[in-house]
Amino acid sequence: MDIIPLIKDIKFNQAIWGLPILYIIHFFEELPRFADWATEYLGKPYTKSKFIAENIVLWMLLTVSVLMTLYMPGKAGIILVLSAAAGFFLNMIFHVFFTLKTGIYSPGTVTACLFFTPVSLFIFYLAGREGLLSLTTFILSIVLGLAILPVVITIVHNVIDRGISFKTLIKKIVMFMLLPFFTVSVAMILFGRETVNTFMIYTSPVILLPLFFKILKIFREKKKSNTTL
Fold first, then answer.
1. What is the full DSSP assignment across 29-59?
2. What is the pTM for the complete model shown?
3. Helix 135-161 with 193-228: angle, nearest 10 deg
4. Contact, 126 vs 12, CB < 8 A?
5. Which long-range contacts does 43-50 make (Cβ < 8 Å, 24+ apart)?
6. CA-to-CA distance for 19 and 183, rounded, in angstroms?
7. Which residues make Cβ contacts (< 8 Å) with residue 82, sequence separation at least 6?
8. What are the pLDDT digits (tens) for 175-217?
9. Where are the domains of the chain?
């Protein structure tokens, strides 16, 4: 079977479903040994519970981004999906760099090289082919691709270090990530996309303020504890 015509027929909105699927495959390659490897070679304690929690959060963010791209108008979903694709490519660089630097296999290298690299580049190619990739979109996706992973890891690790159980963390993820998305989707069905989008544009800065101050408080408390030590 000639695979080239099949690739030519793939659309951006179809290809992006590969991201959450490949993420799961990559996760299972990392799962057995990544926490121990990171503790030894990244120079800080890294428990398996932290590893699992941060990956659940990242996978949920990725899946929500895909759904936003498919079912919500505007560029927000597209930028988030492209930032995930950029993050996949950067993840490959991370694994290859540490494997070459240490001479020790970094768990996740195989799937990052085999799947993340071609799929992330292909998704950017499709975005460009379909007129979705402006210079602004490209720059924002790269910046977010660099920022989202360390931000999520920092927040998740701080939450766990503060004594919040894994079960409680998952409940908070569902409450603050999945429930809002479900609510917005239902509102769009009831009131129309344009009405909901206009409402979100004017209220989102107010809604995001508590989250901003919460993150700021976490960083301040961490800095204070480090100073005390």
1. HHTTTHHHHHHHHSSS---HHHHHHHHHHHH
2. 0.72
3. 50
4. yes
5. 47/160, 49/160, 49/166, 50/156, 50/157, 50/160
6. 24
7. 123, 124, 127, 133, 137, 138, 141, 145
8. 666 666 667 667 766 777 677 767 766 665 565 566 666 667 7
9. 3-165
